[in-house]
Amino acid sequence: MAETRHTLSSRCSCFFLYDRSKVREEGDLTRAGIYYYYPEHTPLDLQELVCGQLAGVSRCVSEISVSPVRLLRLRRSKYAVRMRDDFLWALSCVNDLPDVSVCEFLDQIIDLFCFYNGSVRHSYQLHTQEELAVRWAHYLSHLQGGATELHHIFTCLTTIDYTHIDPLLLLKAALILQACQRCPLVLAGCILYRGRMVSTQMSPQLTMKVMVHERETYSLQEQKKPASGRSSLMATPHYSTTTTTVFLKPYELHTLRRPLVDNTSSCRSESPERPVKPRLLSRTLSDTPITDPSSSQLLASSPDSSLSDDASFSLCPSLASTPFRSGMASQPGEVGAAESHTHTFASEMLLFGGLAPGPGEDGEQERADVSAEYQNHSNNNHENLRALRDGEKKEEEGVEQANDIRERRSDEEEECVRVCDQHDVALEPMLLYEHRVRGLVLILLVEPGFDTHPNAKQEVYHSSMASLNGLEAHLRTIPPASEIPVVPYTFAHYDRIQNTLTTNMCGRSAGLQDRLFVKATALVHSQFSHEDMLQEAIIRSAGSALYATRTAAQETFFVQHGVPARNSGIPNSQDSAFSLPKNLPPSSNTF
Amino acid sequence: MAAKSSLLKVILLGDGGVGKSSLMNRYVSDKFDAHLFHTIGVEFLNKELEVDGRRVTLQIWDTAGQERFRSLRTPFYRGSDCCLLTFGVDDAQSFLNLGHWRKEFAYYADVKEPDSFPFIILGNKIDVVERQVTTEEVQRWCCDNGGHPYFETSAKDATNVAEAFEEAARRVLALEDRQAHVMPSDVVDLRRKPRSSSRCCL
């Protein structure tokens, strides 16, 4: 029973997986190659027509241009395309999603499938097409559900509202994850509440993937729940843990496993190597200034930037989840050196992010300098840890190509695809451990031996249970953020590194102004993804103006309502697009 | 079965570092971890036990002792059936602060009659050699403050831990029995309702 929900929020109008190896001879039927087609009720003739033509065009274009096709633009629609081995995926969307978002969307679906099922070829040898159709439909519906249109544009993670939560609770969540890592079989984890991310140690891509599993078990639990559903504080909470097999790409695993050296040493508290800090974690807690809300928000949301001044934390495996930090942690045995790198690096990143959008050559020069240093740092690393700028440069070179290649942001994905286009990468089976306390879920990526280890599971379970109970109780008492103060502006701030979005338009019903904001944001985001050198942009209508700015690490979109539009026709600081209100929320002006 | 056993909420209060989390962990999971970090906000665990032939589920709430976590922990005092005031026998200040904890609890838990509320005093860390608080001192304090029972415990050695929690359960059950005796269930309690509603009006 594949779910073919076609709601308002559904982005996808067509998606298919096609196996070219099944259609080689003249007499071979196209339908033999169609493994999955969405919408599923599409007449087979039409399916054959679309698949056959798109497969033909894709092949033709990629052979002429000697590079894989990423996007095919037809007169009224566009298809994101992925070719790997003999497989071809294509996806097209209903609304005017930017090219970059459609391509991301397609990559996410394929990634999700491989994460939970292993290699595509192998999956289709093990399971029937009907069985796997259910899964494709499930991943499609997951990626389309829940989030707002803005989230779809940026294809970002849905997080809890960090502006309405005590930052100490984010710290609590981060500490729970770190406590779990005391078990050497635990690689990394994340904590979700009601389907939204609270804290994660994994890369945004991995976090996105594990969130699907959470939703699956959540809906299962909801079904089992009695109709009354009265859940008071005093009721006995129902716990459940599950483990399921997942498949990681070699570089993902490499990134997660790399800090294992530090991990094991911190597990044995009697380790002779670090006699100095016997009470590592409590020391951190008492010494970290956590009274300042903005800094503590950073603590949980971007550990790599704010905790870098604590030596003990720079050793912590959790921080290796972001590409930047993994680069630092890659020199085994050079703890001191790694730490000092971290310091320089953190300040570089600040500089990088805080650069005023310099006009003309100066700004460019500065940016180039910083990125060059950055490259030096990460030179000896795995290919997926490439600097953002590096990826952008590569893109410049490829921009001339006839087919519409729009590759952005996730450099590791890009690398992966380069590899994948040749052959299916060997995926490594790992386990996903899930511990649920009502709406709160702890998800851990663990080594395969975790399930069979005599007491690893028990230990992780017992050591985290009390804290999870507590965190759940805390989060439950936070009132839903319905009372967002009405402010005369709308903003969206997109963090490209963590792949998260902060905006003040989430909870509200989409009025005309909001729809215009979304449309303008999509347009500028698309423009940003095409033009590397573009740092600022303004889009105007008769009544309002959207101002957008970006760096390598973030994009910010802003529109002010109800001010008389002043537009001199040429760039002018007196224009209304620049007149920011006096008290902006911290998330939009700290960077 | 589970439906029959009643749920008793027991809360551990006391200064930071006196061993509240360790006491809970020792009692529920029989584990001791010397490297626990500070509790942030609240945490809780459930433990089923049988007291005098009655099955009860003890829900043990562990709280953060540090002042800066105050706003996080106080909302969870409400509805507690018993309060375990904890101090470290190696830390005189934590003993002197017991009075403050008692007051804070009575205020935020909205206890009507603090004098008859079941408090239990726990002097933890008796495994430590250098004591700063003598047994007599504590017993005197308990006598002066309404005759609370006192237990000297060690979460590290598992001394007296189970006994203390079982006593808590026993006290709560005894109190419930007394109240059930005083007020039969088919009588409407006129005394309590108006009080709570007048409180709302304030």
Question: How is this structure best summarized?
Answer:
The complex is a heterodimer of chains A (591) and B (202). Chain A is an alpha+beta fold and 591 residues long.
Largest interface: A-B, 34 and 32 residues
Q: Strand percentage of chain A, roughly?
A: 15-25%
Count of strand segments of chain A? 15
Calculate Rg of chain A over CA atoms.
24 Å
Helical stretch count of chain A?
21
- The secondary-structure class of chain A comes to alpha+beta
Largest sheet of chain A: 5 strands, antiparallel
User: Which overall shape of chain B is indicated by the principal axes computed on the Cα atoms?
Assistant: globular
The strands making up the biggest β-sheet of chain B line up spatially as 2-3-1-4-5-6
Biggest sheet record of chain B: 6 strands, mixed
Helix count of chain B equals: 7
Helix share of residues of chain B? 25-40%
Residue runs with pLDDT of under 50 for 5 or more positions of chain A: 1-9, 227-237, 260-422, 584-591
N-to-C SSE string of chain B, H for helix and E for strand: EHEEHEHHEHEHH
Shape of chain A: flat
Distance between the termini of chain A: 47 Å
- Percent helix of chain A, as a range, is 40-55%
Oligomer: heterodimer
The total number of structural domains of chain B is 1
| SS-based class of chain B | alpha/beta
Provide a descriptive summary of the structure in words:
The complex is a heterodimer of chains A (591) and B (202). In chain A, 44% of the residues lie in helices and 17% in strands. Chain A has helices spanning 44-65, 99-117, 120-126, 129-144, 149-154, 167-180, 204-224, 250-257, 260-267, 280-287, 293-301, 303-306, 311-314, 323-328, 335-354, 360-378, 388-398, 411-422, 456-477, 512-530, 586-589, and strands at 12-19, 34-38, 71-73, 78-84, 87-93, 186-193, 196-200, 239-248, 428-437, 440-446, 489-495, 500-503, 536-540, 545-550, 554-560. In chain A, a hairpin with a 4-residue loop joins strand 11 (489-495) and strand 12 (500-503). In chain A, helix 2 packs across helix 7 (204-224), helix 6 packs antiparallel against helix 19 and helix 15 (335-354) packs antiparallel against helix 16 (360-378). The longest helix of chain A is centred in the first third of the chain and has 22 residues, at 44-65. Chain A is flat. With 202 residues, chain B is α/β, with parallel strands linked by helices. Chain B has a single domain, classed as P-loop containing nucleotide triphosphate hydrolases (Rossmann fold). In chain B, strands 2-3-1-4-5-6 form a 6-stranded mixed sheet, sandwiched between helices. The longest helix of chain B is centred in the last third of the chain and has 22 residues, at 161-182. Chain B is globular. The N and C termini of chain B lie far apart (42 Å). Chains A and B meet through helix 6, helix 10 and helix 19 of A and helix 1, strand 2 and strand 3 of B.
